[in-house]
Backbone:
């Protein structure tokens, strides 16, 4: 209903009625336009940096698969069992430092900690190219995991401070699509770098590690100077844009202008939250399938009878398709504020891919099934990460939940290193991945149903005539309870 105010215009000698509801609408549209402009500026600064971080991270962790095809295993006289050990060693320190790193990031500052992580692991990656034996490889893989472990949970936590909940998955998809680009780029880059075989007495596979690692460290140094510490310290934003972003985040339940003291109870509450625990299970499934493809796609394609260089090139198209599909699904997920249904769709796509690979023998069909596997698996990762980050508040509860997400994902990564035991078809791995892809579909439904029930319970509490009489609706109480507060609506 319109509200009108009357006042005398002395110059015109007449009474003018002023419609304040229209003025409010104009102010609201101006604020919305200001927020959109500010978010675009943040996108141009933050997303390219973080995407490059993750692209380099995945490239430097998974390029051992390309190096294996290029002769790493043969030159270091490694068995298949030893190769799996080398992959597993990376995950142990990687998992161990994910939660501590996420809890430390606020104290140190993400603009310092994340670039420091990038620089350190790049240095270790380059050192992998200097190893002469299996023991040296094991040592460098251990320190690679130790240096890199805090990166991905730190990135997701950092991004969750810059964007509303329904803006997050598309940005995460851009980030996670870096894994698709890394898979494609890794093959192209490896095909070029192996031609340096013999330069300065180093084999072609060593140059994959050396040159990729040096570039990573240089980029880490560069990012120290350009990465903003928080949404309120983005130099490109005007004062008005800064205020508009702060208000946008506050209305979304993510007030980044106030300080939250460290709290063990907030950390422990994440371990006891049913939806956090439930989401950790499909994250484990996703880790098995995702890292299995990251490490073994070159070996799978090579087993189809292609030469090493041809193998590197043949890994590119499935990842390129995955990049496009991931972005499309993420747009739909944010646009309609749905996570579970998108996860179900990605699970179905991956399940179909594994089923085709398991039941056919023709090379072109096997290769075609990789398109479905990679598309389904790689599109599920941003969906799960956004879902976890969306439904955990306040800050330290969210930081813990995000870290747990990647702990379970990387536990799945450990499993993936041990299941590719029977080349060339890798039947055992395919069967397990088929089961885990189907598991993504199942838990998409289970988690969705649980959150629907919780939202209905919250709606009943809000509808109660006694609600708010004892201060339950205060800003302090909303901040203390976070996602447990009745006004916090879980994203489905």
Residues:
């Amino acid at each position: 209903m319109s509200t009108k105010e009357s006042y005398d215009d002395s110059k015109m000698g007449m009474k003018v009625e002023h419609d304040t509801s229209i003025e409010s609408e104009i102010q609201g549209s101006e604020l919305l336009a200001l927020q959109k402009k500010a978010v675009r500026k943040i996108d141009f600064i933050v997303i390219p940096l973080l995407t490059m971080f993750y692209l380099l991270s995945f490239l430097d962790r998974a390029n051992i698969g390309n190096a294996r095809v290029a002769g790493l295993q043969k030159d270091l006289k490694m068995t298949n069992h030893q190769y799996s050990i080398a992959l597993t060693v990376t995950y142990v320190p990687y998992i161990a430092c994910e939660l501590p790193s996420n809890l430390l990031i606020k104290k140190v500052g993400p603009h310092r900690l994340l670039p420091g992580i990038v620089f350190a692991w790049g240095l270790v990656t380059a050192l992998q190219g200097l190893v002469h034996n299996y023991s040296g490889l094991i040592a460098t893989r251990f320190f690679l995991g130790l240096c890199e472990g805090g990166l991905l949970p730190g990135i997701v936590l950092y991004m969750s401070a810059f964007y509303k909940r329904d803006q997050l998955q598309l940005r995460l998809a851009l980030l996670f699509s870096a894994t698709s680009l890394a898979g494609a780029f890794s093959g192209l880059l490896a095909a070029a770098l192996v031609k340096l075989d013999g330069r300065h007495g180093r084999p072609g596979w060593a140059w994959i590690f050396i040159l990729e690692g040096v570039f990573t460290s240089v980029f880490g140094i560069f990012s120290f100077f350009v990465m903003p510490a928080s949404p309120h310290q983005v130099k490109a934003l005007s004062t008005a844009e800064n205020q508009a972003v702060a208000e946008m985040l506050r209305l979304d339940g993510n007030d980044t202008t106030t300080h939250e003291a460290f709290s063990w109870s907030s950390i422990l509450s994440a371990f006891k939250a049913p939806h956090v625990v439930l989401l950790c299970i499909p994250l484990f499934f996703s880790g098995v399938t995702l890292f299995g493809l990251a490490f073994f796609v070159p070996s799978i394609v090579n087993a189809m009878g292609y030469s090493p260089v041809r193998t590197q090139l043949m890994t590119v198209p499935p990842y390129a398709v995955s990049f496009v599909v991931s972005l499309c699904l993420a747009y739909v997920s944010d646009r309609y504020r749905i996570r579970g249904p998108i996860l179900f769709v990605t699970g179905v796509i991956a399940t179909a891919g594994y089923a085709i690979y398991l039941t056919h023998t023709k090379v072109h069909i096997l290769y075609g099934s990789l398109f479905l596997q990679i598309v389904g698996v790689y599109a599920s990762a941003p969906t799960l990460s956004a879902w976890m980050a969306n439904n955990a508040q306040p800050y330290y509860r969210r930081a813990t939940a995000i870290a747990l997400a990647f702990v379970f994902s990387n536990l799945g990564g450990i499993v993936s290193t041990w299941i590719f035991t029977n080349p060339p078809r890798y039947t055992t791995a395919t069967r397990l991945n088929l089961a885990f892809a189907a598991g993504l579909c199942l838990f998409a439904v289970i988690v969705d149903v649980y959150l629907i029930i919780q939202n209905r319970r919250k709606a009943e509490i809000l509808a109660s005539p006694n609600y708010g009489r004892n201060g339950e609706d205060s800003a302090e109480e909303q901040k203390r309870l976070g996602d447990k507060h009745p006004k916090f609506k879980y994203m489905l």
